[in-house]
Each structure stands twice: as structure tokens, then as C-alpha cells.
Amino acid sequence: ARVAEAREATDRINAKMNISGKRLEISCNDKSFKAAFYEASCPDAGMIFAFHGGGFCFGANCIEDALYDTLRKTLKANVISIEYPKNVLFPTALEDSYQAMLSVISNSAFSFDRNNISVFGCSAGANLALSISMKAWREGRFKVRKRMLNYPYIDLATEPEEKGCPEAGIAANRFYAWCYTGDNMNRKDPLISPLYGQKEDFDPESETIMILADIDPLKREGQLLAEKLRSWGHPCQYHIALGMGHGYLEYAFKECQDYIPPIIEKAKMDGTLKPAAKWAVELFEDFYLDGKYV
Predict the structure, then answer these.
(1) Per residue in 75-103, pLDDT tens?
(2) Of 30, 73, 242, 291, whose CA is between 20 and 30 Å from 261?
(3) What is the mean pLDDT of residues 127-140?
(4) Residue closest to 210 by CA, chosen among 198, 219, 201
(5) Residue 89: which residues within 8 A CB-CB, separation 6 or more?
(6) What's the mean pLDDT when you consider all of the chain?
(7) CA angle, corner 74, sides to 85 and 263, nearest 5?
């Protein structure tokens, strides 16, 4: 009941807040998806499909408005944030997000370079961004040029204690995995936990950047995926936001915050949160605009 109440409260805020982007409804087959579209100034710019975090249970597509508008301006790209179903078993969120992407790509009302499609995500949203790119590669429907992943939640099979999750967060992490997979699914399915993907599951030409939080139980799974991709010769880089905790990028851009994790509050109070977010955006800019960053 408390989960439902929290999700409903977020949805109410999401529906009422003023945003820089344009609210849209994307029709796909017999479904309709809410989206927020941040249009680039250049008509032949690429499109970045963005997916919010929230453990597959929480979050909403407009909540990260300031972050997405910053990406639009800094990366000189279109950004579209698609609302995906939450608190539903795999593969609903993946399939719905994938079909919504196909609908946008095939819709001539959207003016963008179809050869320049990228994905962006935070935490569970990074899982979706990555698994969608894997599904697109598997089916050959479209090509994802760049993947921008923030502290990705890509291993649902490993118990939170083994990841070094603080005791206070163990129950929540178990709950997130259960919400997405239930009791009987194979959590090592690469589309559930991309960390367990094999070489053939990934497009060798898709470039990946991961920004990991230094004080985060999910840091190691991001490092492990980067090591795998590099071992196969796939272009991949990762960077660690020193002193930062999980979710720091979203919190740095949010103006209204009912709750801030203590580690994020500390970074906010000591003045390191905003510079860390600025650094991350600069990394994405360099990566997306094909600069060289060492």
C-alpha cells in the first residue's frame, strides 16, 4: 500500500509540474504512452531516448525535466523521455518501451537523424536503455549509436549483501528485483540483467559510456560490464564520480525534493554535488559529440 501511495504521489507531481519539454502521447498498437519531448534547434540532430530510474517501481518521465533539457542544450540533440509501466513483471516495461521507440522512429512528425539514435538512462532506466539496445541489435530493427548509462542496475541475480549493500537498503533492493522478475524468472537472462550478456548480445559498433557512483553497491557491476565489453573490443569507457552516491545526478538537477539520501545530502551541503553533475554532463558532451576524452 505504501508503495502504491508513493507511486501515485509521484505521478501526481509528474502530471502537474511545469516542464521545459513538450508533453506528448505516443500511440503504439492498442496502447498509448506519455512522453516529454525536448526538441533540438537543428532539424537533423540525433534523438536520445531517455529512461528514468526508480527500481522499476518509482519515478516518472517528467521528473528529470531539468536534466533532460540540459542534455538537449549541451549535446545539441533531441531528447525524448518515455514513461514506461512500473511495478510490472518483465518483459512488459522493456517491450512497451521498445515499441514506443519504434513508433517514434517511424513517425515522420518527428524530425531527426534516424542514423543517430542513442539511449540514456539512470539506474533501472539504464538497465532498460541497455536491454533495449540489445533487443534492437538482436532483431535488427534500428541501430543504437551511443549508450549513456548512469550507475546502471544491470545485475538482478546477485544478492544485495554480496554487492555490499548497506543493511538499511537490503530489503528495498530485494523488493526492486522481485517487482521486476517475481519468484521464478531466470534473473541471469541478459535482457533482465545485461551484465550476463555474451559477446553476440551486443552490437560491436555501439559505443558505451558509464558514469558510476563511487559510494554505490552497483558500482562493481558497471565496472564488470565495462571490462567484458572492452575484452571483446567493443568501445566502452567508464568514469567514477568520486564521493558520490547512487542517484546523485538526478538529485543535482531536482528542485523539489521530499527526501534526499544522507550521502546525497552530505554532497549537497559540502558543495560537491553540483560540480559532480557538471562533470558528468561534460563527459556526456564529449562522448556524444565525438570528442576524445582520456
Answers:
(1) 999 999 999 998 899 999 999 999 999 99
(2) 73
(3) 98
(4) 219
(5) 179, 180, 181, 182, 185
(6) 92
(7) 60
Cell output for 238: 567508464
Lowest mean pLDDT among 29-38, 40-49, 114-123, 284-293: 284-293
User: How would you class 82 by CB atoms within 10 Å of its CB: exposed for 0-12, middle for 13-18, buried for 19 or more?
Assistant: buried
- pLDDT tens digits along 154-171: 999 999 999 999 888 899
Lookup: cell for 242:
568520486
User: What is the Cα–Cα distance from 78 to 226, expressed in whole angstroms?
Assistant: 27
Strands (E), 155-252: 207-215, 236-245
Per-residue pLDDT tens for 233-284?
Answer: 999 999 999 999 999 999 999 866 667 899 999 999 999 999 999 999 999 9
Q: What is the dihedral of CA 56, 57, 60, 65, to 10 degrees?
A: -60
Q: How far apart are the first and last CA of the chain?
A: 48
Q: Determine the Cα–Cα distance for residues 257 and 268; give it in Å rounded to an integer.
A: 12
Is residue 1 classed as helix, strand or coil in its secondary structure? coil
* Mean pLDDT on 2-13: 67
Beta-carbon contacts of residue 73 (< 8 Å; ≥ 6 apart): none
Residue 1 has pLDDT above 80, yes or no: no
pLDDT at 30: 85
Which grid coordinates are listed for 117? 539514435
- Which cell numbers hold the place of 204? 560491436
Q: Which amino acid is at 203?
A: D
Instruction: Retrieve residue 229's grid coordinates.
Output: 565489453
Instruction: Report the alpha-carbon distance of residue 65 to residue 194 in Å, rounded.
Output: 27
**Grid coordinates belonging to 274:** 553540483
